[in-house]
């Protein structure tokens, strides 16, 4: 369990910051916005959410690793989009510090502003398009990649593709994904000490 004082402080921070955020992605109805990763998000039988946490922490923590690699940048951004919907609401991650989910949502706003993604675009539409773009680029078909970055989700697809090839440092994404990786490790160690499953337990979509 989380320390009571730590939990109370985190909850207060979430409450204070939630009142000043801009409207985010829209889903069907007024409930939580859900999203999932495609089958090729992870190789073999690995856990796609854990893989997304670790990959984004590395990618945004070492932006030089994405320089000139738009296919990899597209996957990292898609994974960030997914984490910003999964971590705040997914039952597997209930032991995470709740401010991590809020930071991931802020990171999503940051990367959307940099890449020219519509602020209220559904996360699933963004994820699907970016993974498709990554596949097309790896297949050597930049025209197909650009065609996937279409309005209204990507108002200026050509510009988005250019920015993926030269992704600048994203400090909020770096901080948020680094904290997510730290929480994954912390909760995993708690599970090891308690004899349970680490990484937030079972359940959830990914």
List the helices and strands and how they pair.
Blueprint: H1 4-18, H2 48-61, H3 70-89, H4 98-115, H5 123-138, H6 142-148, H7 157-165, H8 171-194
Helix pairs in contact: 2-3, 2-8, 3-4, 3-5, 3-7, 4-8, 5-6
Give the tags.
60% helix, mainly alpha, disordered N terminus, 0% strand, 206 residues
Task: Please describe what this structure looks like.
With 206 residues, the protein is an all-alpha fold. The protein has one domain (47-193). The chain has helices at residues 4-18, 48-61, 70-89, 98-115, 123-138, 142-148, 157-165, 171-194. The model is unreliable at 1-22 and 196-205 (pLDDT under 50).
What is the gist of this entry?
This protein is mainly α and 206 residues long. It is built from 8 helices and no strands.
